Amino acid sequence: MSNRRELILNYKQSTRPMGVYQIKNQKTGKIFIGGSLNLPGSFNSHRFQLNYRVHRNIKLQEDWHLFGQDAFTFDILETINPEEIAKEQWRDAVSKLEEEWLAKLSPYNNKGYNKQKIKR
């Protein structure tokens, strides 16, 4: 039992890969861009929501249902090295990197599943 507790503690204290990812529909070429402090966790969360038809992105959900799970790939576009940034700045660094990728790839309308944010 002690070994199990130690493994859990080590997992909680370890850092997960963080950065920007894309979910790509191989049939249509449409992409969804996101950022996360836990990339493997985000992939698992998206797959779970899509498979159980509860994903908040309706267009992505519709295509997942139409084309099936095998039509989609989950790819890491860029990671952040947590050792180079203070822990308090991780979230902001991921957000900034995500904004850069959104500007670069413009995954909106016919090109993707993201919704453009209204700038005020």
Automatic annotation (TrEMBL):
Residues 18-111 form the GIY-YIG domain. It comes from the Bacteria. Transmembrane segments: none annotated. It comes from Desulforamulus aquiferis. This is GIY-YIG nuclease family protein.
